[in-house]
Design goal:
Layout lengths: L9 H18 L8 H14 L8 E4 L2 H16 L2 H4 L2 H23 L2 H43 L4 H4 L13 H13 L7 H10 L5 E3 L4 E4 L2 E4 L1 E3 L8 E3 L7 E3 L4 E5 L2 E3 L1 H5 L6 H6 L3 H10 L15 H7 L3 E6 L10 E5 L5 E6 L6 E6 L6 H7 L14
Parallel strand pairs: 1-3
Antiparallel strand pairs: 2-3, 4-7, 5-6, 7-8, 8-9, 10-11, 11-12, 12-13
Helix pairs in contact: 1-6, 1-8, 2-9, 5-6, 5-8, 6-8
Length: about 400
């Protein structure tokens, strides 16, 4: 690039959306075989940029749960101090942050302050946030939380002293590509920070597989998954997607290991694969409100034959749990309304049961505990709208 980058051209702006989409597709691609030679070469170059001697010992594992345990235990056995011996931060600082800072500084130098912020933010939102929200926000962060729960439970007892928290020193591989996409757009489409291109290329190649844990004496890296199921719940950007599947684990790796999410809520695989085994007592014991909501939705024997997003077991749960009636009326005064009921379950949660005016489908809606009548409950979940103002229910 010559001169000052005063603004993005029409062509550059037009390229942002397809550029981001291409990165999203690559990050979520589960069809191809990982080019392990390229990954190893990228890792070696990352070590060199971090001024850490390369050991040429790369161990591939099937999934991040195995990788987290293997890295932590091996680190401890080799040096008795996994935290101080791990070089994840060294690689991340020398290669990741250094490239990020170089690109940021290059853009600021190349443009005026006011224009620079506009260009910087435009690319961040259109490219970085789009990829980050679709990939890292939906998948990488969720997997990190699930592994934290799983590893934490596994090491809480006898092996806690051996493993500790060393497993957290990972680099996220394919699921951290929001940052790489943002950097790549400036480098490939705007021509900035070319002096850092070799570091960027090394880091990109090293990230082509799954999570990886760099260590002075070895690297543990996990394979890509076999499939990833997400759903889009908002426009592009952070919070745009979440993991979701009600028929099989949302993520499954090639060794068969899977993790389940429904509506972005992490649940045990049994809740997805054998939901008819869920009991009322199990739902009532669940302390996490979102997980309990999902379990109740999955509840009931009928789900064996209706395995889709339309099924809602809440009514069956309320019947089986012995929920008591609080109020009953004939519906709103609007044309097409139907009878409705306010009930309370064993935990004191209240639910409004109503019928769609056009489809006659019955809905069960969670309402505040303070609701004393169907009318109050309806107004509470409709932003305080006075239902007497409704003309028709449809």
């Amino acid at each position: 690039m010559t001169g000052r980058l005063m603004e993005l051209t029409t062509e550059q702006r037009a390229e942002m959306a397809p550029f981001a989409q291409a990165w999203i597709e690559r990050a979520l691609d589960c069809s191809g075989v990982v080019d392990w030679d390229r990954v190893r070469d990228g890792m070696q170059r990352c070590y060199e940029f971090a001024n850490v001697a390369w050991h040429d010992r790369v161990v591939v594992v099937a999934n991040p749960f195995v990788g987290a345990l293997a890295f932590s235990i091996a680190s401890r056995l080799l040096r008795h101090d996994a935290v101080h011996d791990a070089v994840g931060d060294a690689v991340g600082v020398a290669v990741g942050v250094a490239v990020h800072d170089a690109v940021r500084d290059a853009v600021r130098v190349a443009v005026g302050v006011a224009v620079g912020v506009a260009v910087y933010d435009a690319v961040r939102v259109a490219v970085g946030d789009a990829v980050g929200g679709a990939v890292h926000g939906a998948v990488g962060g969720a997997v990190g939380g699930a592994v934290r729960v799983a590893v934490g439970g596994a090491v809480h007892g006898a092996v806690h002293g051996a493993v500790g928290g060393a497993w957290r020193r990972y680099l996220a591989g394919q699921w951290s590509w929001g940052w790489e996409a943002w950097v790549g757009f400036f480098m490939e489409r705007c021509g900035v920070a070319q002096g850092m291109r070799d570091r960027y290329d090394a880091y990109r190649d090293a990230q082509l597989a799954g999570w990886w844990w760099p260590h002075r004496q070895f690297v543990i890296v996990c394979d890509r998954p076999l499939h990833v199921h997400r759903e889009q719940i908002a426009p592009t950007g952070w919070g745009s997607h979440r993991l979701h599947s009600r028929s099989e684990p949302a993520i499954v790796w090639r060794d068969g290991f899977g993790m389940s999410w429904i509506d972005g809520v992490f649940v045990a695989n049994r809740i997805v694969q054998e939901p008819w085994t869920i009991t009322v007592d199990e739902c009532d014991r669940e302390a996490n409100a979102e997980r309990r909501r999902v379990m109740i939705q999955q509840y009931g024997p009928e789900i064996r034959s209706v395995r889709d997003d339309q099924y809602d077991g809440t009514r069956q749960y309320l019947v089986d749990s012995g929920a008591r009636s609080i109020d009953f009326d004939g519906g709103t005064q609007a044309r097409g309304s139907a009878p409705r009921a306010l009930v309370e379950d064993r935990r004191g949660e209240r639910w409004l049961i109503g019928t769609d005016g056009s489809t006659r489908r019955v809905y069960v809606m969670s309402v505040p505990r303070e609701a004393r009548t169907c009318r109050e409950a309806h107004q509470m979940i409709n932003g305080g709208l006075d239902e007497s103002l409704c003309v028709a229910e449809c």
